[in-house]
Design brief:
- The chain has 2 domains: 21-86, no CATH class; 93-303, no CATH class.
- The protein is built from 12 helices and 4 strands; from the N terminus they run αααααααααββααβαβ.
- It has helices at 21-31, 41-55, 65-78, 96-109, 114-134, 144-167, 174-177, 180-196, 198-203, 219-246, 249-268, 284-293, and strands at residues 205-208, 214-218, 274-278, 299-303.
- It has a two-stranded antiparallel sheet with strand order 1-2. It has a two-stranded antiparallel ribbon with strand order 3-4.
Length: 306
């Protein structure tokens, strides 16, 4: 008879060492696996039950370590790490490849009229806004008014920027013109992500010590988190956009899709999801509070989002 699985496995952390790029890459290849979006509600509920009970010290009969880790990654792919809520399906990182492939294909097909370009740019930036909201950091509730304001400002600013830069292709050489779409994507990310996560920049995100004891909320941590996500998203688009320079339009969507399968997890892995910073880089008043109440803490940790 097999021995019962130990309850000492640390499933709060990923299975692989997150201090190395390879470990983070293995983690994100699992989290962003497009097959995760095919999981049924029953499968998600089953994984949720396994993980919730395990955290309470209850082991499902016959559960193996591999099954536990599989349940953890199913859980992580669908439930927000801070709020615990089930994430919007198209906003999950596992939906990045099929959604971006579909939207990119439509943008490449319907590009001859200004209304069509405007519509698909709006669809693209609306999708980005959903992803940015779904993968935000922190657990503070957001009102419908705040969410609506963030969405309108993010999509309007990003669409206007992308259209403006794309218009440059008519006035520059064809070679330079091929770089413009990537510049438009990069600029749109620099606008969309901070605006959709503006509440974090205004009020801060939760910071903890190494044992997950909450120490407060920091806007400085939010700035670092969002900056890292912007860099990751820009680089995530670069392999696909780079093929625009060397690959014929007929094969561009296929090349973009292939590169996205690898670019999504590898660029997510550039920075640890559980990011950190020294106490000395926090807001002065928060530094004083931590040093007064937790004198041994020199470094704080936070979820940077994706």
């Amino acid at each position: 008879m097999a021995a019962e699985l130990s309850t000492s496995i640390n499933i709060k952390e990923p299975r692989w060492d997150q201090s190395t790029f390879v470990g983070r890459a293995k983690h994100f290849f699992t989290v962003t696996d497009p097959r995760n979006i095919l999981l049924t509600n029953e499968q998600l509920a089953h994984a949720h039950k396994i993980i919730t009970e395990y955290r309470q010290g209850i082991v499902s009969p016959g559960l193996t370590e591999d099954e536990l880790w599989r349940a953890k990654y199913v859980f992580d792919s669908a439930f927000h790490p801070d709020t615990g809520e089930k994430m919007i399906l198209i906003g999950r990182m596992s939906a990045q490849v099929p959604m971006n492939m579909t939207i990119t294909g439509c943008m490449m097909t319907f590009y001859k009229s200004t209304p069509a370009v405007l519509f698909w740019q709006w669809i693209n930036q609306s999708f980005n806004a959903i992803v940015n909201y779904t993968n935000r950091s922190g657990d503070a509730p957001i009102t419908v008014s705040q969410l609506g304001t963030a969405y309108v400002s993010a999509t309007t600013g990003a669409v206007a920027t992308a259209l403006g830069l794309n218009a440059l292709t008519k006035h520059v050489s064809p070679l330079i013109g091929r770089f413009v779409p990537f510049a438009a994507v990069a600029a749109a990310n620099c606008i969309n992500i901070p605006l959709m996560r503006q509440r974090e920049l205004q009020h801060g995100i939760p910071i903890t010590d190494e044992n997950d004891n909450r120490l407060g909320e920091s806007t400085k941590a939010a700035q670092q988190a969002i900056s890292q996500v912007v860099v990751s998203r820009i680089l995530m688009a670069s392999p696909g956009m780079g093929t625009n320079i060397f690959v014929s339009p007929a094969h561009l969507d296929l090349s973009f899709s292939f590169s996205l399968v690898f670019a999504t997890p590898l660029c997510c892995a550039l920075f640890p999801q559980r990011s950190s910073m020294s106490v000395g880089r926090l807001e002065p008043e928060l530094q004083e509070k931590i040093r007064a109440n937790h004198p041994g803490v020199e470094r704080v940790y936070f979820n940077k989002g994706l």
